[in-house]
Amino acid sequence: QAQLEESGGGLVQPGGSLNLTCAASGFPFEFYTVGWFRQAPGKDREGISCISTLDRVGAYYADSAAGRFHISRDNAKNTAYLQMSSLKPEDTAVYYCAAQRASTPRTMCVFPKLGWYWGLGTPVTVSS
């Protein structure tokens, strides 16, 4: 059974950093494009960053994440990461990871689909 499990969320002050982890199991992770999404209360789910099957060979960042967030993956560990820095209150949301096989990183982030593999999310709160 395919599973994704996010961890690393929490409360952080503005300007701080958090590192999120997405652990995958039950499917051939190395062949799947992976993405990080977030959903704030009352808002649509937003694609933050997505990465192709090979680390550093094709990553997409939303404007809201560019220059502050960094996505990576370790296929040997079936794990993806999202390093977040210079966090702002507007980054407050539940962060989800997802995996799918068919799309480019940009397409995955811009056009998320419920039928992919999704984790249950980890909450991030940026507040003083």
Structural class: mainly beta
Average predicted local confidence, pLDDT: 94
First-to-last CA distance? 40 Å
Instruction: Give a short account of the largest sheet.
Output: 7 strands, mixed
- Quaternary state of this entry equals single chain
Radius of gyration: 13 Å
Order of helices and strands: EEEEEEEEEHEE
Residue share in helices? under 10%
What is the percentage of strand-forming residues? Answer: over 45%
* Rough outline: globular
Number of helices: 1
Low-confidence stretches: none
Total strands: 11
In a few lines, what is going on in this structure?
The protein has one helix spanning 105-110; strands at residues 3-7, 10-12, 18-25, 33-39, 46-51, 59-61, 69-74, 79-84, 93-100, 117-118, 122-126. By secondary structure, the protein is mainly beta.
Q: Which descriptors would you attach to this protein?
A:
about 130 residues; seven-stranded mixed sheet; four-stranded antiparallel sheet; 11 strands; mainly beta; 1 helix
Q: How does this model look, in words?
A:
- Strands 2, 4, 5, 6, 9, 10 and 11 form a 7-stranded mixed sheet that branches.
- The mean pLDDT is 94.
- The protein is mainly beta and 128 residues long.
- The longest helix has 6 residues, at 105-110.
- 5% of the residues lie in helices and 46% in strands.
- Strand 4 (33-39) and strand 5 form a beta hairpin.
- The relative contact order is 0.31.
